[in-house]
Amino acid sequence: MTDRHDLPPDFRWGVSTAAYQIEGAVDEDGRGRSVWDDFCDRPGAVKGGDTGRVACDHYHRWPEDVELMRGLGLDGYRFSIAWPRVQPTGRGAVNGAGLDFYERLVDGLLEAGITPLPTLFHWDLPQALEDGGGWMQRETAFRFAEYADLVADRLGDRVPAWITLNEPFVHMVFGYALGIHAPGHSLMLDALPTAHHQLLGHGLAAAGLRSRGLDVLIANNLTPVRPASDSAEDRAAADAYDALHNWLFLDPLLLGRYPDLSAYGVGEDLHGAVREGDLDLITGPGLDGLGVNYYNPTRIAAPADPGLPFTQAPIEGVPLTHFGWPVVPDGLHELLHTLRARYGDALPPITITESGCSTDETLDDTFRIDYLATHLDALARAVADGIDVRGYYTWSLLDNFEWAEGFGERFGLVHVDFDTQQRTPRASYAWYRDLIARHRAL
Known about the structure:
Pfam families: Glyco_hydro_1. This protein has 442 residues and is of the alpha/beta class.
């Protein structure tokens, strides 16, 4: 089991959350509506009819949550800032009460000795921007950069590093291509412009942040892609999926070009979204770090129908989380080596910005402890191989609103009773606390 000897002394330990999943207070203090507010209002969109209207009530209970983090002995806390809380319609004047909340949170974290690591966009686009086309429209990228400037103007003197986007791949596929997340569109491959516009928004925002002397990261869900067999058809299908899931969002940032998407019948302009000079705007600011969200590998076979050039196949013979996701710790080791092999010196330092699991255990969550321990072992082996990984932020501090799954999936080190808002640390909380303390004792 991973202990204090396996990672460098300056390795950073953290936890992650996201605004819509924990804050609640959706109608308070001038916050505008987000796409998730409207999506949750759709009958059948979210299991059990759950919503983030109250969630963990973190907006009011943040001091208690900061104390839980202090108790863990964390180095950092990755959270997200709700765009509609800062700019209710996604453009124009700032909502002072919204920024005041994040200022209180940042100051509380600093007082507790915890470095804030904010994410500017974790899927909660202001509904007013979505009404105008959302990320399908180029204009949204410029609105995002304006919003980033407003937040950095207030908090940049205390927050040294920023994540622009969280999991743009998942937001594109689940939100715009398949319709199972907000904003709920089913555009299939016609959703590809949202990839470019998110990356353009990243580039424009990153330029503003770096001009202030701030560090910039982006966080994406990455997965090792494995063909279901050694057949040429399965290998080609795996390559096509790899390009879409992993390289569509990293190649422009690190290589200055989009990967080959000809398997999808898509050219380099992504259905006309890419304009001259855009890749310079995306690549130009550079990255100070790459956030990697890792949960599991993906097994791919040749297409079962002509709709897409791949079929997802199950990974058998491994444990499954309560969510049904396969538990493959070695996949993290494999992924980190794949990133280094593909990008070489262009690969910035890595931070694991999400890693965790859902389990139905109440407080004695031995499944989660084993999950975290084995993934940290895989991570430590990659670090021993010379891969520059600076920190690990487990998902998540609290049980929370798990998007379309509602409150049915529990990822927290801390159990939350959503009727009473009582927080109760699980066994994994104590395990993580003790792990951090052993590491600090070096």
